[in-house]
Design brief:
193 residues, mainly alpha
């Protein structure tokens, strides 16, 4: 997701032409909140398994109505067109996936309300780290034509190193290694993962 945001103007240029590269800000606004949706998707089955779907359904309808209202108001109010639509969609996603879903799931399992919020903050930290690495790499190695592909590879390698050697603890590395196919674990040295 971060690489899509970092290189959205290059992707727009490649996909539909340079005249649309200025729309890259919309990608940032619309795509970054997807991190909340991805993380929330891991805990949605909790309330589904408890057959407590009435409240999420009602909240989903309310958030949908809010999205429609914001989609109508924001572009006209601030004269920001497509950006207003992206902001409206992002606000709705943040409210539902970033706030309601983790809080409601904690309520369902009778846990502290912040039980699922704290782990989600690690994903957000990962996004911030990747974006910072990306900005640093792009500053040191300016993007020229297809250079963004090389920069994406460098950013991915640096983030993978940060993840493996700083962020993940030993138990998490063992768990991650156990999920990999055996032929892959034979290739990766144990000191890395």
């Amino acid at each position: 997701l971060c690489l899509i945001c970092l290189y959205s103007s290059q992707l727009y240029t490649l996909w539909v032409g340079e005249q649309f590269a200025h729309l890259s800000v919309i990608v940032w606004i619309a795509v970054l909140p997807v991190i909340f949706k991805m993380q929330a998707s891991c805990i949605v089955p909790i309330y589904q398994a408890h057959l407590l779907i009435k409240v999420p359904m009602i909240v989903s309808i309310i958030v949908g109505i809010l999205t429609i209202i914001l989609t109508v108001i924001l572009p006209g109010l601030f004269e920001n067109g497509l950006i207003g639509v992206a902001i409206a969609s992002s606000i709705a996603m943040l409210l539902y996936e970033g706030l309601f879903t983790p809080l409601y799931n904690a309520y369902v399992v009778k846990a502290n309300l912040w039980t699922f919020i704290k782990p989600m903050s690690y994903g957000i930290l990962g996004v911030v780290i990747i974006l910072l690495i990306g900005i640093i790499v792009d500053t040191l190695l300016p993007v020229i034509k297809w250079g963004w592909v090389l920069n994406s590879i460098i950013i991915s390698i640096v983030y993978l190193a940060v993840l493996l050697f700083i962020l993940l603890n030993k138990n998490e590395k063992i768990l991650l290694r156990s999920c990999l196919p055996q032929f892959v674990t034979k290739i990766i040295p144990s000191w890395i993962l």
